[in-house]
User: Fold this.
Amino acid sequence: MFDFNVCIAGAAGDGVKEAGEVLAKLFSRMGYNVFVYQEYESLIRGGHNASVVRISDRKVHAHRFYYDAMICLEDYVLKNHIERLKGFLIHDAKFECEYSNSFPVPLSEFVKEENLSFLYRNAAALGSFCHLSGVELKFLNEVFQSEYGEKSGVDVELAKIAFDYAERNFDRLMEIPAKKSQDGNVFSGSEAIALGMVDAGLEYYFAYPMTPASPVLHFLAKKKLAYAIQPESEIAAIMMAIGSAYAGKRSATGTSGGGFALMSESISLAAMAEIPLLIILAQRSAPSTGMATFTAQEDLYFSLSPAHGEFPVIVASPLTLKDSYILAGTLLNLAWKFQTPTILLTEKHMTESYENEDLDGVEVEEVDIFSSVTDDVFPRYEITESGISRFAVPPAIVKCNSNEHDEFGITTDDAKMATEMYAKRMRKEEEILKEVKKLEPYWLIKNGQDTIVTWGSNFGAVLEAAEELGYSVLGIRFLRPLILPKLGGNVICVECNYRGLLAGLIERETGIDVARVLRWDGRPFTPEEVKEELARR
Amino acid sequence: MKTSAKITWCPGCGNFGIMRAFEKAVKMIGNARVVVSSGIGCHGKIADYLKVPSFHVIHGRVPPFLTGFKLANPEMISVGFVGDGDAMNEGIEHLIHAARRNTDISIFLHNNGVFGLTTGQVTATSPKGQKGRSTPYGNPENPIEPCSLMLMSGATFVARAFAGDIQKLAQIMYDAMKHRGFSFVEILQPCVSFNNFWGIRDEIKWVERADSVQTALKLCSDKKVCGVFYQKEDETFEEAIYRIYRR
Assistant:
C-alpha cells in the first residue's frame, strides 16, 4: 500500500502553507487521497511554519509523525523536524546540511536570477520534488494554472528550472505513478463548514476575525457564497445574525473561545427569543489567548453550557472533513427546525487541515415561515405539545423578547405563564433527542474488545492506531444531546485537553471508568503517537 | 397602535410623550412598514406597548440587531429605541460603528441622564457631581454629549428633541425615519422619579439645521437647543453591501 508523508518547512512568508495545498491538490489530481496538517505561529514573517502532506492509496484523516520526504527552506527550522525525517531532504543550497540523504537545490539563486521575491522558492522546491519523487511535471503545472490562473506563469517557469536542475544533478529516487486523472477536490475544514452551511441555505454570515475560525469568513467572502460581513466585535456579529434570523434569513456566526465568551449573553437571548442560529466554535489552545494558532479541545463544557439560564441547545463536533460539511449543514437545518441555537464545535486541527473530498449530501430542510401582514400580534410563542411554535417574521406583527413573555411575546412575570412558557421551551429537548437519535449521534467501528472513545479531529489518528492494535473506536458526533452505545471492556478516551473532558462526561453518564490519553501542547495526535501511548499502558 | 400590554411607566414619565410622538410619526409615514427594537431599561418597554413587529433585545445591542435585520429585510423602516445607560454606557461602540457605517436605521435615544429601572444610578450622560445611589457624594465623571459623538462618528442625520413637545418630536422622528442612512435623535426625557427636569420646557430653543458638521457641533453643545442639527446624503451600508455582492 502506498503511503507517503512529506513535510514542507520554512519561515512565515515562505509560502509553506500554499506549497502544502498545491502538493495536496497535485496528488489528489493523480488519484490519491491526501491529508494536510498546517502548523504555524502567531506572526506574519519569520518564525516557523510547516505543512505536512500525507498521500495514500486509502482514505486517511490524519498526517503521520515520521516523514518520508522533507522540503526545508530555512536552516534554523530543520532542527524542529530532523528527528522525524526518515527519507530524503530537499533544501535550499544557500545553507549547509549534514543530513546524509539530502539534495541541495539553489532555490534562492533561481528566484534571484528571475528577479522574484523569495516567496517563489516554494514553486521551485516543488519542481525539484517532482523529479526526485518521479511525478510528472505536467500535474504540478495543472495545479498552478487552476490555482493562480494568469499569474501561474512564474510558478510554472520556476518549477521547470528546478525540475531540470534536479534531473541534471540527481537520480530519480522513486516513481509515483498517476492512478487516474481527476479534478482534485481538496478542501480545508473551514471550506467544508462554509459549503455545508451554504447547502443548508445560509444567507448571512457575520464574524469578527479570530483564528482558527476566520477562514470560514474569508472563504464565504471571497466566493460570495453568502453575505459575509465583518462587524466591530463578536457581540455585534452574533447580534447581527440574530437580527437577520428574526427577518427570516438563515444566519450564522463563527469564532473561537474568546469570541464565544463574548457571544454568551446573546446566545442566551437567541434561546429566550427562540431564534434559530448556528454558531461555529473552532477551538484553539486556551485559557485566554493561550497559543493562538494551535489546536485544542478545551471548550467542551463551555459549549454544552454556553450561556446563563437553561435552554435547549444542540452541540455537535465533526469527526472528519466530510463530516464538517455534513454537520455544519445539519446544525443549520436543526436550528431552524427547533428554533434554538446550535453549536458546531470543532478545532484548529480540523478547520485548517485539508483533505480531498466530494462534498455533497446536504440540502435545505424547509420550514414553514409565516410572513404576511397581520392586524393583530402573531402568537409567535403559542404553547404547543412539542414546544415548537409557528415561526413568523415581519411584516407580520411578531414580537420577540429577551424577557420572559406570553404567547404573543409580551413581557410577563406571571407565575403560571412563566412556568408554562419555560416548560414549552424545554420540551423541545425531548423532540431534539428523538431527532438526533436518527442522525448517527456517534460512529462505532467494532474491531476489538476494548474501545477507544474520541471526538473531533482526533478521530483520524485514533482510527488508524485502533485498526492496527485491535481496538474498537467510538467517535462521538453529537455532544448535546449525548447518546452513547453500551460499552464493554476497557474504555480509553483520547482528547486534547488536561482533564479528559469527554471522558469525565462519559463517566458521569454511564458510571464506568474511562482511562485517558491526553495532550495539551497545542499539537494534534498522529497515529504513531496514539499507538505509543496505548503500548505504554 | 397599542397592544393589550399594561403600561408600567411612572405617571408623568417622559416615555409617554415619546410613544405618542412615535405613533404620530408612523401615521405621517402612511402605509410604510416599521419594525422596532429596544434595549434594556424603562425605555425598552415601549416594544411591548406598540402594535408593530418588535424585538426587545439586551443591554446596548439594538444597533447591531437592527443592522442585521435591515440587511435581511431592506423593505422595512427599522427603528431602535435606546436608553442613555443602554446606548451610552454598555453598547456605545455599536452606536459609533452604526453611525460610521451609515446603516439605514433610526436610533431614538431616550436620554433621562439616569438609570431609572435600576433605581437611580448615574449614566454616561449624567453631569459631573450628580448624586445617585451609587454616587452618593457626586458623580466623579464627565458626561458624554451624544449628539456631538454621533456627529463626529459620521452620522448622516443628527437631531435633538424634547419628550414634552410631541408635535416637534413627531416631526423630527418622521424626518429621521424618512432619512436614507443612519439617523440619530437624542430625546430629552425627564424621569419623574430620579431626574425630573420637566422645568426646562420653557427654556428650549429650536434651531435650523447647520450646513457643516463644525457648525452643528457648536449648535448641539448647548443642551437646551433642539432641532435637526445636521443632515447629508451618502451611500448606506446596505447599498454598499448589495453593490459588492450584486446578488
About this structure: Residues 415-437 of chain A form the longest helix (23 residues). The longest strand of chain A covers residues 46-56. The radius of gyration of chain A is 25 Å. Chain A has a mean pLDDT of 97.
